[in-house]
TrEMBL record:
<feature type="coiled-coil region">
    <location>
        <begin position="167"/>
        <end position="198"/>
    </location>
</feature>
<keyword id="KW-0418">Kinase</keyword>
<protein>
    <recommendedName>
        <fullName>histidine kinase</fullName>
        <ecNumber>2.7.13.3</ecNumber>
    </recommendedName>
</protein>
<feature type="region of interest" description="Disordered">
    <location>
        <begin position="1"/>
        <end position="28"/>
    </location>
</feature>
<dbReference type="GO" id="GO:0005524">
    <property type="term" value="F:ATP binding"/>
</dbReference>
<dbReference type="InterPro" id="IPR011712">
    <property type="entry name" value="Sig_transdc_His_kin_sub3_dim/P"/>
</dbReference>
<dbReference type="GO" id="GO:0016020">
    <property type="term" value="C:membrane"/>
</dbReference>
<feature type="transmembrane region" description="Helical">
    <location>
        <begin position="33"/>
        <end position="51"/>
    </location>
</feature>
<keyword id="KW-0812">Transmembrane</keyword>
<dbReference type="InterPro" id="IPR050482">
    <property type="entry name" value="Sensor_HK_TwoCompSys"/>
</dbReference>
<dbReference type="Pfam" id="PF02518">
    <property type="entry name" value="HATPase_c"/>
</dbReference>
<keyword id="KW-0808">Transferase</keyword>
<dbReference type="InterPro" id="IPR003594">
    <property type="entry name" value="HATPase_dom"/>
</dbReference>
<feature type="domain" description="Signal transduction histidine kinase subgroup 3 dimerisation and phosphoacceptor">
    <location>
        <begin position="200"/>
        <end position="265"/>
    </location>
</feature>
<feature type="transmembrane region" description="Helical">
    <location>
        <begin position="121"/>
        <end position="138"/>
    </location>
</feature>
<keyword id="KW-0067">ATP-binding</keyword>
<dbReference type="GO" id="GO:0000155">
    <property type="term" value="F:phosphorelay sensor kinase activity"/>
</dbReference>
Length: 403
């Protein structure tokens, strides 16, 4: 398929400029038939008026020739979609000697103005005006002043071409709006795909927030077993149980994330519900069972009423803070404070003092807090963190809670 063929397939019939080399002839629609028939009838009506006016001062032979010329000119209008320029030129020349062709000429000029560029419209309109002037002297009307006839012909040509150009501009505007709508739809699809990709990247970054908590428990208790092989059997059993449970939970979390990252339609069954503010108590209990000293102070009466996305963000913030406290300040008391109500937002404060003694270095990239700061900003809130004046660590976050 050539470029010309593609253009004729994509453009509606009223915007196709026929007459090109090898260009297919557009099929007339019901609207095209109505327009063509209307123009034919109008041209025939104008031709009859002109023939009746000229019959009063011409011979019967000339009148018959005028009628034949008018019928041919009106019939030629059915070719205006295929050869608009050639038809307009031919009718302009016929109009110089046959006033009955004036109606068909105006219809052809309208078609040229609708379908062709301004340069062609200008010289064809000038030709039509010139032949109208010639007609005034070749076929003068005794009842009308010559100057008035010339002015009337010029005004009619100008009005018809201006009307056609207005229709052309209107159609081009509609086509541009359609193209803009199609482009906007394509851009919306691209933005949706980009948003999906960014969401998946955010979920991939969240793997750190989800798995770091579990893996830290594994590291701490495995290190305790390594450095305290002479610990009482009860402590060893407890540490082994924590390691087993943390490994199981880490696998469950990893399976959940992989399920979310699957393409649409590939999600498997058995996906666990996402954590919310209502599950914050369970996170604190889990940290206490692992040996951490955590104090939870929450004044939210109904945690289930908090929006799921906001509650999930609070959960991840608390999870990261507890993980960092366990790694960098073991044995200290971590205080988690949650305040808020609908319309005022939700405030989270997490603090822990400095550790009493030296702490073995634990590897960490610091990406967890950075990711949570970005996450809070995307949720419409903010998060700040850093060393406290007493040497400990403090984290403060505020998230919106619509009323």
């Amino acid at each position: 398929m050539t470029r010309t063929d593609r253009q004729h397939r994509l453009l509606p019939s009223h915007l196709v400029e026929p007459g090109g080399s090898g260009a297919p002839r557009p099929r007339r629609t019901a609207r095209d038939w109505v327009v063509d028939t209307t123009l034919f009838l109008l041209a025939a009506f104008v031709g009859l008026l002109a023939a009746d006016a000229s019959a009063q001062y011409t011979s019967a032979t000339v009148t018959l020739l005028d009628q034949l010329a008018g019928a041919a000119a009106c019939s030629a209008l059915w070719l205006r979609r295929r050869w608009p320029v050639g038809l307009a030129v031919a009718l302009s020349l016929a109009n110089a000697v046959a006033p009955v062709a004036a109606g068909a000429l105006l219809a052809s000029l309208f078609s040229v103005a609708v379908r062709r560029p301004f340069r062609e419209i200008a010289w064809i309109g000038a030709l039509a005006v010139a032949t109208s002037v010639v007609q005034v002297f070749v076929r003068p009307d005794p009842t009308t002043n010559a100057g008035l006839s010339i002015a009337l012909g010029f005004i009619l040509v100008l009005l018809v071409t201006a009307w056609g150009m207005l229709v052309r501009a209107r159609r081009q505007l509609f086509e541009a709006l359609r193209e803009r709508a199609r482009r906007a739809e394509s851009e919306a699809e691209l933005r949706a795909a980009q948003a999906q990709r960014l969401a998946r990247e955010a979920i991939a970054r969240e793997m750190h927030d989800v798995l770091a908590h579990r893996l830290t428990l594994l590291s701490v208790h495995a290190g305790a077993l390594e450095f305290r092989p002479d610990a009482p059997p009860e402590q060893i059993a407890r540490a082994a149980g924590v390691i087993r449970d943390s490994a199981h939970e880490a696998l469950q979390d990893l399976r959940e994330i992989i399920g979310v990252l699957r393409a649409p339609g590939e999600n498997g069954d058995g996906a666990r519900p996402q954590p919310t503010l209502a599950t914050l108590d369970a996170l604190v209990d889990e940290s206490r069972e692992a040996g951490a000293d955590v104090v939870l102070d929450s004044t939210v009466d109904d945690p289930a009423a908090v929006p799921a996305a906001t509650g999930r963000t609070v959960y991840r913030i608390a999870q990261e803070a507890l993980t960092n406290a366990r790694k960098h300040a073991p044995g200290t008391t971590v205080t988690v404070t949650v305040r808020g109500r609908p319309g005022e937002g939700l405030t989270v404060d997490i603090r822990n003092p400095a550790p009493a003694g030296p702490v073995p270095p634990v590897p960490g990239s610091g990406q967890g807090l950075i990711g949570l700061t970005e996450r809070a900003a995307l949720a419409g809130g903010r998060m700040e963190h850093g060393p406290a004046p007493d040497g400990g660590f403090a984290l403060h976050a505020w998230l919106p809670w619509p009323s």
